Amino acid sequence: MTTTATGNHLDILIVEDSRTQAEQLRYILEKKGYRVELATNGRDALEQIRAGRPDLVLTDIVMPEMDGYELSRRIKADG
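Now predict its structure.
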């Protein structure tokens, strides 16, 4: 793994159905040197995770289609 000038090279996936909250989190994390991707629900997040595993997933709990608890279970099951 390479590091940025701030030493914070991590790929973070934010799973949040509120675009405003997701963008605010992205802004804060990118200022600290993290690379951030967004997903609006659990199904989209699973597709992104399967395409390229992030180092960290930050997820909302209450979302349409698949809640954060189910997303966490599926991520663990895919191991």
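Helices lie at 19-31, 42-51, 68-78.
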